[in-house]
Amino acid sequence: MSLRVRVYYMWGFISSWLFQPPIRQDINMTQGTLYIVSAPSGAGKSSLIQALLKTQPLYDTQVSVSHTTRGIRPGEVHGEHYFFIAEDEFKSMIGNGEFLEHACVFGNYYGTARKTVEDILNSGVDVFLDIDWQGARQIREQMPAARSIFILPPSRDELLRRLRGRGQDSDEIITGRMAQAVNEMQHYGEYDYLIVNDDFNVALADLQTIIRAERLRSGRQVQRHDALIAKLLAQ
Questions:
Q1: How far apart are CA 44 and CA 38, in angstroms?
Q2: What is the DSSP letter of 64?
Q3: Model pLDDT, residue 203
Q4: Segments of the chain with pLDDT less than 50
Q5: Which residues have C-beta within 8 Å of that of residue 42, sequence separation ≥ 6?
Q6: pLDDT, tens digit (0-9, with 9 covering 90-100), for 161-218
Q7: Strand 62-64, strand 6-10: pairing
Q8: How many C-beta atoms surround the C-beta of residue 9 within 10 A?
Q9: DSSP designation for 199
Q10: Sheet holding 108-113: strands in order across?
Q11: Model pTM score
């Protein structure tokens, strides 16, 4: 599971928040779509999701924080980046069935709260889960309607350069991350969409295109515009 497990909620992505019109009250509320986003560490998935969220109106964008037992890092804020909790508390939550998915990575636990995700989806807001392929399998088993996206780096050399460029890990840890990355990338075929993050802006446009296309699916559009359709087809 990625060391940066986050859950991202978003509604609409084209208009900037400065120019977004008021929420339409005459459009029916639809079920939000759950998006699973996976990638090896250093492929840029977190940066892509953050860049996508910056195009969202503030009142339509929500970020739900995942739980972890790892130590807090410099610059991180409890309740903003993660809920940093003790291992005993995390295991208690597992026992109570409170996680939609969870995993242990490098000796630390990470998990996505089930109720938070379900409540947001039911309110019509799309949910992004930044998780690894194992977590993705858990999610798909419980929510088969979820859409999944895998992000690849353009090469191993570039992935290694990005990991070293962070300046956070030792050579030993980076070597371990590279080995883990190769294993993770073998699971790309389990996903609905594949993005190669060579040029960041192009990859971001690809991500936006996927979300837009999913929102234009017939079933979802019918939910949103059933009143309009009924009027148009009235005899």
A1: 10
A2: E
A3: 96
A4: 2-4, 9-27, 58-60
A5: 153, 159, 160, 162, 163, 166, 177, 181
A6: 988 887 777 888 888 889 889 999 999 999 999 999 999 999 999 999 998 899 899 9
A7: antiparallel
A8: 22
A9: S
A10: 83-84, 67-68, 108-113, 99-105
A11: 0.78
Amino acid at 77: V
- b/e map 73-107, b = 16+ CB within 10 Å: eeeeeeeebbebbeeeebeebeeeebbbbbbebee
Name the strand (E) or helix (H) holding 62: strand 62-64
Beta bridge partners of 113: 99
Dist CA 29 CA 223 (whole Å): 8
Q: Residue 33's closest CA among 165, 127, 169?
A: 127
For 203, phi then psi, to 5°, come to -65, -40
Q: Specify the pairing of strand 147-152 against strand 193-196.
A: parallel
What is the per-residue DSSP string for 66-133?
PEE-SPPPTT--BTTTBEE--HHHHHHHHHTT-EEEEEEETTEEEEEEHHHHHHHHHTT-EEEEE--H
Question: Angle CA(72)–CA(39)–CA(61) in degrees, nearest 5?
Answer: 65
Burial of 178 from C-beta contacts in 10 A (0-12 / 13-18 / 19+): middle
- Residue 182's nearest CA partner among 67, 42, 52 is 42
Note whether 3 and 131 are within 8 A (CB): no
Report DSSP letters for 6-61, one per residue. EEEEE---SS-TTTPPPPPSSS---PPPEEEEE--TTS-HHHHHHHHHTTS-GGG-
Residue of 86, 170, 101, 99 lying closest to 133 (CA atoms): 101
